[in-house]
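Before we proceed, please read the two lines closing this message. Report back on whether the structure tokens fit the sequence:
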Amino acid sequence: MKTVRGSLHLIPVPLGESALRATLSPSAVQAALALEYFIVENEKSARHFLKVIDYPRPLREVRIEKFDKESDRDCASALLQPVLDGRSAGVLSEAGAPAIADPGALLVSAAHGMGIRVVPHSGPTSMMLALMAAGFNGQRFAFNGYLPVAKQDCRRAISDHERQSRAQDSTQIFIETPYRNDALMQAFAETCDASTRLCIAADLTLETEWICSRTIAEWRTHRKSIGRRPCVFLLYAR
């Protein structure tokens, strides 16, 4: 008798210690509660998430496997073998939605190649929340991840993205390691044209959420320390 394949559930997790019901869809929570196999970016944060949603089984009885930025396609194929054998699995990022600015994308690609059904669930995605709140072009945008760390390379990349934004009428989206937030803010202020608009969205979905959209000229006048907190930067040049 042929074994029915399991499914790969992509389950978003909160962006921080926020109210679960305000940020996750019921289907995401229900799917997580029903699964006994998880493929995760970070084991510690995954176990915390399962405890917070009142996962009904002892965690020592749950299979939790790590898949992070160091993992490759061979690892993905091995971790998906139980799904081929009929055991559904859940993918958990360290924060937000799996496979978006997240190593889970390789896992999802491998699942498609193996003929495994992929089931995405609704939940918080910082880039999309920031784009919604920025007031910039939401029909044409690009997520660029991290900018270069080296000062001159960073400014050169900012100039290139600013030109692209102006030429294509597109919003350019970036993230940064929290301890470099203020340095990146300074790089935007020193590099971009005065009329270019920059939105900074920090601590999205949390009680300390702060979102501000201004021209570069206004940012130069009203500079604010962002501090070390999760942040999304959006650039829009007209």
Observations:
- Residues 40 and 66 are 5 Å apart (CA to CA).
- The chain has nine helices and ten strands.
- Strands lie at 7-10, 37-40, 63-66, 89-92, 117-120, 141-143, 171-175, 197-202, 210-215, 231-236.
